[in-house]
Fold this sequence. Notes:
Elements: E1 4-11, H1 27-38, E2 49-53, H2 54-62, E3 91-96, E4 108-111, E5 114-122, H3 128-136, E6 140-143, H4 151-162, E7 166-169, H5 173-181, E8 187-192, E9 220-229, E10 234-241
Parallel strand pairs: 1-7, 1-8, 2-3, 2-7, 3-5, 5-6
Antiparallel strand pairs: 4-5, 8-10, 9-10
Amino acid sequence: MRPYIFCHMSITLDGKIIGPSSQAPESKPAGKVFYDLAFGKNAFYQHEGWLSGRTTTDDNFTHYQKPVLDEDAPQVPDGDFVAEASPTMDKYYISIDPSGKLGWQSKTFNYQDTTGEVIEVLTEKASNAYKAFLRKLNISYVIAGKDKLDSELVLKKMADLFQMKTIMLGGGGVLNWSFIQQGLCDELSLVMKPVADGSPDTPSLFQSKEGLSDNTPVSFTLTDIQVKDKENGIAWLRYLVNN
Ligand SMILES: NC(=O)c1ccc[n+]([C@@H]2O[C@H](COP(=O)([O-])OP(=O)(O)OC[C@H]3O[C@@H](n4cnc5c(N)ncnc54)[C@H](OP(=O)(O)O)[C@@H]3O)[C@@H](O)[C@H]2O)c1
């Protein structure tokens, strides 16, 4: 059985996940509600790891730095590499990086007061030099798919190799939609702030991408609505995905 997957995101009234609205005063309290629900001391969601797309990782953690590659590195053994986890880690950070582009500096990083331990998810497109780079940093990696990501295999490997039972699907919109369309998400959790930007260009909660997903609709069943911060107008909406 695959792990339970919930998609947890902070959004504007027009479904944006980043952009000019992040400067609005409501964004800070919304960010706190978002963090507390999934990462706080008494978090509602208890998960062993969170999934992120390559763009989200570059925007937030690796900042488009290039990996330092040794093109003459000796051939690494075939298959996955499971490193011993750092003693300080709180949760795994499952980084969807099919071609092996991300310039990690170390195997852990801090997200507020959470220490994330990186697991890179690659396909067979990733080079020997990139895998050698990850091994040098003692960063775990799994191979899921030949030249296209096999998302079901990703989840199976997270359960089998890292004992994960619950995983947060954490954006961006491209990754979210590709998992939801494949029936690989059980629940949707939205922290909604009363802001909008109206722009057709800012990334939204779900975005199809050619080759990864299409525009076939998916429906959801509302299970709960709560006002989490009345003064700042922050609501929390929960849905089941109608798979
Ligand atoms: N408000 C929030 O709660 C929140 C949460 C997370 C992120 N964000 C924001 O969202 C923005 C980026 O979102 P985004 O939707 O443009 O990008 P994204 O989903 O973070 O990353 C997209 C990339 O990830 C890889 N990828 C994702 N799904 C894949 C699949 N099924 N198969 C193969 N590869 C896959 C591909 O990498 P390659 O291009 O390397 O092939 C793809 O181009 C960021 O600015 C981030 O800060 C906001």
